[in-house]
């Protein structure tokens, strides 16, 4: 301690007592004291407010006022000077009350000696100093802290705790105090929520059987934690659900099918796996745009969910591909009831924003364990069955069977063999003549791919072309045929046309204009001698792109024929939307018009229509003289068919129609 005298305020309403106290203090020689005296509590209060004192010695009873009242008043007005109470009575309960009120010490006037008072003063000052230090530590703690005595009463707390108590009071709509919050905190759980604040409570015992309660505000952490949890939940949802339709996605489905297989195996149960694929979805996307495509998928998803019972499961694997699972009871038919409900619900045309979109669904079914005992096997077989359904416009639901499997395996094998055949240039091109009906002269030849496999023998294009279209080999195959056909045609003795078939896949995936141009340049064939045959499906799949590509080809001077006319979906609109040079009436009409009046009417109408639109008309598959007579009568311009020549190797081509082969009525022109 420094040498400054200790400033003491002595408050006692009794002058004799005041004198005694001052005398006793001054009679000790150890410490220097600077004593001020007051006989009135209100006066003493004013003095203390104005001048800092080191200690107050205060009488316990002063008329109507007690020393305890004085302490409370001082503490209430922010004065924290230590106050020692002096009493004429013996100590006891008053002693306890004084300490609780915040008295620094409690001394009986009867036992007062210079040593006792000197020690009490110095201890009280040192204690107060320590308390101040402790309080300043508390004040700077980044948490609400309260010291609680063994009767659960707060003895010391920091401003944060006071603030929290006020907040607590407000939220409880009461005049709650520090004492109430303390009581509540003593009993609370580890995590306390006061309105929107979350607090973490830590409690530790003090040496005097009390406790320190520390409340950390963890609201922000909790928010962050909640946000993280929500984000994790969202991510988990996204990982398992399709964000557009809300259906479980491929990941979710994989987990589900694996679980289903494991459980069914353990319980000796059966279940159906349904592979669902929308029909004409690509066309809807292409014709009406992706927005409508999405609307269709949403509507279909809604209907699928509607079709499902509480135990059924449906997922969207991507695009227009869905999978469903239905439990099967022994004796249930091989086609599940769910498949029938879905077929009925989705085979209707669907109305989307005032538009009627025609769609439908192809469903393949595989049954566990008969059609596969693993997820992969079941899925692959349901897929096989779905493709079978796709290929049959009359039956939309197919259950898997072994024959399908053989068919698929054979297709795969043919695909592999075809790849080798293309790489080894084992494919040939044959040519079939086309003739002018009036003049009887050869106008051109259609190039047709031929494949003679060393083991399987001659495989027809109707088998290998669809396979090549499925596995993408058609782009190489098509290029090969185009080059060969042009190379060969350049060497012909007569400059007649060569017609080459082009697959819709080539239009979609190859820069056809560039390919045709480069082949013409390389081979030296005049563009006017090349004709490309395309089918209507080219225009249905992606109308804009197809029109763009076909126009580019026409700009090269190459002509375009519409092949298999009459067998597609939108004949009239297709015919009008693009200026073809030639319409090829499909063999199926030519084949049946002699026997079938309707086919004759349709063929007549088609020829008429084509003439009105200034297209040349060629009939394919002409085999009989009656057919020629009919076609001549109707004004068909050209014909192609076995009657005038089958497809042959390039070496065997003849450029005149044999007189014998000419039907009556057809002129002969060499
Ligand atoms: P397509 O383009 O309509 O070809 C005409 C088909 O009819 C040919 O069958 C031809 O041999 C056959 N045919 C011609 N006249 C007659 C007849 O009087 N009677 C009968 N019964 N049939 C006749 P092929 O060569 O089997 O070709 C079938 C289809 O395969 C072709 O139909 C064409 O769509 C496709 N194809 C053939 N070669 C190619 C090619 O190089 N590229 C592409 N993309 N497709 C091809
Ligand atoms: Mg053709
Ligand atoms: Mg054809």
At a glance:
The protein has 670 residues and is α/β, with parallel strands linked by helices. 46% of the residues lie in helices and 23% in strands. The termini are far apart.
Kindly, what is the distance between the CA atoms of the first and last residues, rounded to a whole number of angstroms? 138 Å
- Secondary structure tally: strands: 28
Largest sheet, in brief, is: 8 strands, mixed, barrel
Total DSSP helices: 24
**Strand arrangement across the biggest beta sheet:** 20-21-23-24-25-26-27-28
Helix/sheet category: alpha/beta
Q: Helix and strand layout, with pairings?
A:
Layout: E1 6-11, H1 15-26, E2 33-38, H2 41-50, E3 55-59, E4 61-62, E5 65-66, H3 67-76, E6 83-87, H4 93-101, E7 105-108, H5 114-139, E8 144-148, E9 154-157, H6 159-172, H7 178-187, E10 191-194, E11 197-205, E12 211-217, H8 219-240, H9 250-267, E13 270-278, H10 281-288, H11 290-307, E14 313-318, E15 321-328, H12 337-347, E16 350-352, E17 355-357, E18 361-368, H13 375-390, E19 397-399, H14 402-423, E20 427-436, E21 442-453, E22 457-459, H15 461-471, H16 474-490, E23 497-501, H17 504-509, H18 512-523, E24 530-535, H19 537-541, H20 543-555, E25 559-565, H21 571-577, E26 582-585, H22 587-592, H23 597-612, E27 616-619, H24 625-634, E28 638-640
Bound molecules: ligand C2E and magnesium ion (2 copies).
């Amino acid at each position: 301690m420094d040498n400054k005298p200790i400033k003491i305020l002595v408050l006692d309403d009794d002058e004799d007592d005041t004198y005694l106290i001052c005398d006793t203090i001054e009679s000790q020689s150890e410490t220097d004291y600077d004593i001020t005296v007051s006989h009135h509590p209100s006066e003493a209060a004013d003095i203390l407010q104005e001048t800092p004192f080191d200690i107050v010695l205060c009488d316990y009873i002063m008329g109507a006022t007690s020393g305890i009242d004085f302490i409370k008043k001082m503490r209430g007005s922010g004065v924290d000077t230590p106050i020692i109470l002096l009493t004429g009575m013996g100590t006891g309960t008053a002693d306890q009350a004084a300490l609780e009120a915040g008295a620094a010490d409690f001394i009986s006037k009867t036992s007062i000696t210079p040593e006792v008072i000197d020690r009490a003063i110095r201890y009280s000052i040192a204690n107060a100093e320590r308390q101040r230090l402790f309080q300043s530590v508390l004040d700077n703690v980044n948490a609400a802290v309260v010291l609680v005595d063994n009767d659960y009463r707060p003895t010391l707390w920091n401003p944060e705790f006071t603030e929290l108590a006020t907040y607590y009071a407000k939220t409880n709509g009461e005049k709650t105090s520090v004492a109430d919050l303390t009581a509540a905190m003593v009993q609370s759980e580890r995590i306390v929520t006061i309105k929107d604040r979350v607090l973490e409570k830590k409690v530790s015992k003090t040496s005097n059987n009390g406790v320190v309660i520390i409340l950390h505000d963890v609201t922000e952490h909790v928010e962050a934690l909640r946000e993280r949890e929500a984000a994790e939940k969202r991510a988990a949802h996204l990982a398992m659900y399709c964000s557009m339709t809300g259906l479980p996605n491929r990941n979710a489905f994989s987990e589900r099918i694996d679980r289903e297989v494991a459980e069914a195996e353990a319980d000796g149960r059966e279940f159906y796996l349904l592979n669902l694929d929308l029909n004409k979805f690509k066309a809807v996307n292409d014709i009406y745009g992706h927005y409508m495509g999405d609307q269709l998928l949403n509507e279909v998803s809604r209907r699928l969910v509607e079709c499902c019972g509480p135990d059924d499961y449906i997922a969207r694997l991507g695009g227009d591909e869905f999978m469903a699972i239905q439990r099967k009871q022994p004796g249930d038919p091989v086609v599940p009831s769910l498949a029938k409900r879905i077929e009925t619900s989705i085979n209707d045309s669907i109305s989307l924003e005032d538009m009627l979109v025609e769609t439908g669904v192809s469903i393949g079914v595989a049954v566990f364990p008969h059609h596969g005992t693993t997820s992969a096997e079941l899925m692959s077989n349901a897929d096989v069955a779905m493709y079978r359904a796709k290929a049959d416009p009359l039956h939309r639901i197919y259950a898997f069977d072994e024959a399908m499997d053989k068919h698929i395996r054979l297709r795969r094998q043919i695909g592999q063999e075809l790849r080798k055949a293309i790489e080894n240039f084992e494919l040939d091109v044959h040519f079939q003549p086309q003739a002018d009906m009036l003049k009887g002269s050869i106008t051109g030849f259609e190039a047709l791919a031929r494949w003679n496999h060393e083991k399987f023998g001659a495989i027809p294009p109707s088998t290998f072309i669809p396979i090549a279209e499925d596995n993408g080999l058609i782009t190489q195959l098509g290029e090969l045929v185009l080059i060969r056909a042009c190379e060969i045609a350049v060497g012909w003795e007569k400059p007649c046309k060569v017609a080459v078939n082009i697959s819709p896949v080539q239009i979609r995936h190859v820069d056809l204009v560039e390919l045709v141009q480069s082949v013409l340049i390389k081979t030296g064939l005049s563009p006017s001698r090349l004709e490309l045959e395309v089918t209507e499906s080219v225009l249905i799949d992606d109308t804009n792109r197809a029109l763009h590509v076909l126009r580019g080809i026409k700009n090269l001077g190459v002509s375009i024929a519409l092949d298999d006319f009459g067998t597609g979906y939108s004949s009239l609109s297709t015919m009008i939307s693009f200026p073809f040079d030639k319409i090829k009436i499909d063999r199926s009409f030519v084949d049946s018009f002699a026997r079938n009046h309707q086919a004759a009417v349709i063929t007549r109408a088609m020829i008429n229509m084509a003439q009105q639109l200034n297209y040349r008309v060629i009939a394919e598959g002409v085999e009989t003289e009656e057919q020629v007579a009919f076609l001549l009568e109707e004004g068909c311009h050209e014909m192609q068919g076995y009657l005038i020549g089958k497809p042959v190797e390039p070496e065997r081509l003849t450029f005149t129609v044999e007189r014998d082969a000419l039907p009556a009525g057809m002129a002969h022109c060499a």
